[in-house]
Amino acid sequence: MQKWEYITLFGEARGQTIISRSGKPEQEATLDTVKDLGMEGWELVSVTINPHTEENGFYFKRPIE
To answer: pTM for this structure?
Structure first.
């Protein structure tokens, strides 16, 4: 049975910057970070938007080998 690991980027998407990686406010992730995640085997599986805070959740998964 395939097992998966997950990572989430939370925050506002402002232009090409996603504020906060994995819920850590002191970090920024950019679209380059997202591209890097793709190169590491991560697949974007969902994007959510909280209408009250306008915070986005970007959910990634990749198989555990």
So the answer is: 0.71
Domain count, the chain: 1
Contact yes or no for 4/59 (Cβ under 8 A): no
Domain span at residue 30? 4-63
Cα–Cα separations (whole angstroms), residue 61 to 38, 46, 51, 52, 64: 10, 10, 24, 26, 9
Strand partners, 57: 10, 48
Average pLDDT, the chain: 77
* Cα–Cα distance measured from residue 27 to residue 45, given in angstroms and rounded to the nearest whole number: 22
